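Hi there,

I know you've been waiting on this one. I reran it after we fixed the sequence typo, so this is the corrected version. Both the input and the resulting structure follow.
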Amino acid sequence: MDTDSVRLSHAGEAIGILNSDGVSDRLNAKAEKIHRGMSYIINDRMLLILMDLGDQIAEAHIAQSKSNWPSIHEDIETAIEFIANLGFVEIYTNVRSELKKTINLLTKHNFRIDDTIQSEVILKWESKQHY
């Protein structure tokens, strides 16, 4: 992984991505503030919000404007590698159940469906090197 491919984001940049075309409609809300987690920019295209849950487990959420979707597979792989390099061995995320394409996209990157809570699908990625 290129060390220049991940950097901390500033609040305005993160909110801009969350309110961009292809993201805001999936959130069903206008973002004004990020309440938890550290915000990173992956490959100058994708927002990663990362929360340390303890015991080498992370909660991660990604957002990428529609104009950058052609690079989404590369950016997801970079984000996973970055999170794993921080020492996390499990990553959890959640997606609204009606966003089938997003769920399918994450399963192509070795996330598996772990649970469903109301209208949210919980997906989990586990490091192969941990076991």
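Quick highlight: Residues 3-126 form a domain with the Aminopeptidase fold (CATH 3.40.630.30).

Best,
R. S.
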